[in-house]
Structures are given as C-alpha cells and as structure tokens.
Amino acid sequence: MDKMTVRDVDWAGKTALVRVDFNVPMKDGVITDDTRIRAALPTIEYLSGQGAKVVLMSHLGRPKGERNEKYSLRPVAEHLSNLLQGKTVTFADDCIGEQAEAKAASLQSSDVLLLENLRFYAQEEKNDPAFAKALSQLGDVYVNDAFGTAHRAHASTAGVADYLPAVAGFLMEKEIGIMGEALANPRKPFVAIIGGAKVSDKIGVIENLLPKVDSLLIGGGMANTFLAAKGYQMADSLVETDAIEVAKALLESAKKQGADLLLPTDLVFAERFAADARHEVTDLNSLPSSGMALDIGPNTVKKYADVIANAKTVIWNGPMGVFEMPAFAAGTLAVAEAMAKVDGVTIVGGGDSVAAIEQAGLAEKMTHVSTGGGASLEFLEGKALPGVVALKSAK
Ligand SMILES: Nc1ncnc2c1ncn2[C@@H]1O[C@H](COP(=O)(O)OP(=O)(O)O)[C@@H](O)[C@H]1O
Ligand SMILES: O=C(OP(=O)(O)O)[C@H](O)COP(=O)(O)O
Predict the structure, then answer these.
(1) Ligand that lies nearest to the alpha carbon of residue 316, given by its number in the listed order
(2) How many other CB atoms are there within 10 angstroms of residue 108's CB atom?
(3) How confident is the model at residue 29 (pLDDT cuts 50, 70, 90)?
(4) Half-sphere CA count of 210, side-chain side, radius 13 A
(5) 351 in catalytic set
(6) Pocket of ligand 2 (CB under 6 A)
(7) Whose CA, among 25, 243, 313, 357, lies 20 to 30 Å from 101?
(8) What is the pLDDT of residue 224?
C-alpha cells in the first residue's frame, strides 16, 4: 500500500484520533457478532503500546442524524474493555464538543476513549467541514482503520484528513494490501466466484474482474438473469428483466476477452420461496414451467469445485443460492468448502458470503475474510475508496 501507516508515526506524547468501524450487529444492547471490534484490536493495542492516547470514533447503524439511545456505542466500550483484557475504556456521551474534548484532554499515555455514535450528527454523513474540524480537535494524528466504511466520504472517514496528518491502521492496510495484490498481481489460475441476488449490483465487479481472471463462476439469483439472457425460460425465478441486455453484453465481453465465464448447468428448483418448499434438481434442458431456482445443482457444484481446486487465487462475493434456508444452502457451502482446500490465496468479501463462510465454520481457513460488504464490493469494482484516498501517501 502506498499510504503511510501507524508505523510511520512517533506516538510518544501524541493523541491518535482513530476511525474504526464498530458498526456491529446488536440485539437488546448485546453485541451478537464482534468480528469488526476484534479486527480493530491490533491497531488499538499497537497505539496504546506505543504510548499514544487513543481516541476511538465510529458510527453504529443509521440513526439519521439524531441522538437515539438504541444506536448508542456505550455497550461497545464495555465489550472492548473485555477484549483488551480488562483495560479501562472510557466513554464520552458525545463525539464532539466540551465533554468529548475534556475527556480526550484528561487521557494519560496508553489510555483508550470511545466517543458516542458519529451519526447522531447529520453533519457526519454530509462530510461537513466544521464537524470534521470539531472532530480534529480531539487528536494530533488521524488514523483510519475503518475499512468497512472506507467507501463513504464522511467527515470522520475523509473530511477530518483536511485538518490532521492522516495514516492507515493495520486493518485498513491488510484489507487493501491483500485485495489489492490479488487484483494487481494474482497468482494464476485466478478464479472469481460471483453470486448474490442481482446482476445489477455486481455489474461493476464483473466488468473489473473479467480482464483479470481465468475463470468467473456465476451463481445465486443473478445466474437466472444470465440464463434468461441465453434464452432459457426461468419460470418464476428471480430474473431482472431490465438487466438482461447487460447480461448479454457481459457474456459477449467475456467471450471477446477469452475469460471462461461459467453459468450453472443444473439448478435446484422449488415450488415457492419457502424453507419447506418442495424442490427438485433440474437440468437446463428440462426446466419446469413453474417454480423458482433457489440454488445451483450438484453437477454445477462439482464443476465449480473442480475449477476452484486448481486455482491459486480465489475471490468470492455473493452466495450461490438462498443459503439462509438449509434446503438451498448446499451450493454456497460447497463453494466455501472448496475454497477452504485451496493451496493459494482465498478472499471472501461481501456481507452474505462472509455470513455463509462463518455459518460453515470455515472463516479460519481463508487467507482473508473482509470486514466490509459495500467497501469490498467497491474495491473489487476498481473504485477509489474516499477513506483511502484521504490518507497521506508514503514517500
Ligand atoms: N436463486 C436465488 N433466488 C433468490 N435469491 C437468492 C438466490 N440466490 C441467492 N439469493 C439471495 O441473495 C442474497 C444475497 O445477495 P447479495 O446481497 O447480492 O450478496 P452479498 O451480500 O454477499 O453481496 C441472499 O439473501 C440470498 O438469499
Ligand atoms: O456495515 C457497513 O457496511 P456493509 O454492511 O456494506 O459491510 C459499514 O459499517 C457502512 O455502513 P453504512 O452502509 O450504513 O454506511
């Protein structure tokens, strides 16, 4: 990565103002998945270990610019304290203003403070310069470790870098480094697996990956639109009629570029969209006239698993079927298992594929499981992420 990182700063006597992504799922004030908090620990521990005073800031949910206790980060301070072996994490009820400034000023070397939800202010998402400046009063150096929010040009992810020297944290460095290297310099064969609900969400990713990959495996709801583009009658399956022309163009473009774009050859067809729906495996040449495709079929699984087995770099975004329903999870789980066996670089990006890999208990087997859904998608589309652009370039 050509950006400065926390390693490039002498932290003695300095306050680090650190943007983290603590946007974690919560139920009744209890954190149900702390992956994103754990992912930020290396940066927090490093800064504290270097003697910096550490001021953490994050958003939680989408409170729409108003204070709302449901979205308070207070429970996260306690959870973080436990993850830091009982180290005190103080909490400021506000992310700017007198109280926040007083709490930041009273920090001793190595202390950690967490600020209240940035999105209690509408100015955060508007990237308001006065709000960014108010945040900047709380530190000497700005650290962005919030990869999951790096695709947002907000005051805490971009604007604040106008007022303080801005460097990357370790999580940011790792995410950008691993995914960037895979895109720029992949070990071959390079295979991308793209699934999920809609082609329209993934056009940018497919266009960016086609010239780079040896094989592109398509599954999930979006495969239906590709199959419809090839003339198959998909009955009641999720087909985006508006995107059929785009799917045709992508198929044509793959052919021209010599990329091996694979579509399912068999599907699991269900009578209706329900966990207990009657279902059967069907070949493309005997598609039923009613019902819907909710998973890739076993022949497709076998073919995709063979391609994955030979790969040296694999990137996966989007489930192969409606994996939330066990009857239609086989394709997604098989891809996860095939990736777990790869002798090479394996990267999973995107909210639902990450959920699937965790459901399968295979996250540990991957080279990298991204902490960003939207952010990893935009990165794989080849877009510049505002939260990264704002950081100081390495000399
Ligand atoms: N054949 C299908 N028909 C309808 N929905 C599907 C199908 N295959 C997958 N899905 C749904 O797509 C959703 C995930 O899509 P998406 O949000 O694009 O993925 P991601 O979050 O990984 O980027 C899941 O909720 C899944 O149930
Ligand atoms: O959870 C997040 O995004 P993701 O669900 O796309 O991974 C980030 O914290 C960004 O949140 P936002 O999409 O409300 O800006």
Answers:
(1) 1
(2) 7
(3) confident
(4) 19
(5) yes
(6) 21, 23, 62, 148-149, 152, 351, 372-374
(7) 25
(8) 97
Closest CA to 263 of 289, 286, 297, 291: 297
pLDDT surpassing 80 at residue 1: no
Nearest to 130 by CA among 165, 160, 158: 160
Strands 292-296, 266-270: pairing kind: antiparallel
Which one is catalytic: 14, 36, 174, 392? Answer: 36
CA of 150 to the centre of ligand 2 (A): 9
* Dihedral pair phi/psi, residue 152, rounded to 5°: -105, 135
Q: 29: CA distance to ligand 2 center in Å?
A: 19
Rounded percentage of the chain residues whose pLDDT exceeds 70: 100
CA atoms of 169 and 183, how far apart (whole Å): 21
Report which secondary-structure segment, H or E, holds 215. strand 215-218
pLDDT of residue 350: 74
- Structure confidence by residue, pLDDT tens digits, 68-103: 999 999 999 999 999 999 999 999 999 999 999 999
Measured CA to CA, the distance from residue 75 to residue 90 in angstroms comes to 11
Task: Read off the pTM.
Answer: 0.94
Query: Where in the chain is CATH 3.40.50.1260?
Result: 6-174, 186-380
Q: How far is the CA of 319 from the centre of ligand 1 (A)?
A: 6
**Can you tell me the distance from the alpha carbon of 167 to that of 8, in angstroms, rounded to the nearest whole number?**
8
Name the nearest CA neighbour of 238 among 292, 295, 196, 284: 292
Q: Which 3 state secondary structure label does DSSP give 190? A: strand
End-to-end CA distance of the chain: 12
The whole-angstrom separation of Cα 29 and Cα 77 is 12
Nearest of 348, 362, 352 to residue 315 by alpha carbon: 348
- Active-site residue, selected from the candidate residues 74, 87, 133, 198: 198
CATH number of the domain located at residue range(s) 186-380 in this protein: 3.40.50.1260
pLDDT band at 385 (very low <50, low <70, confident <90, very high): very high
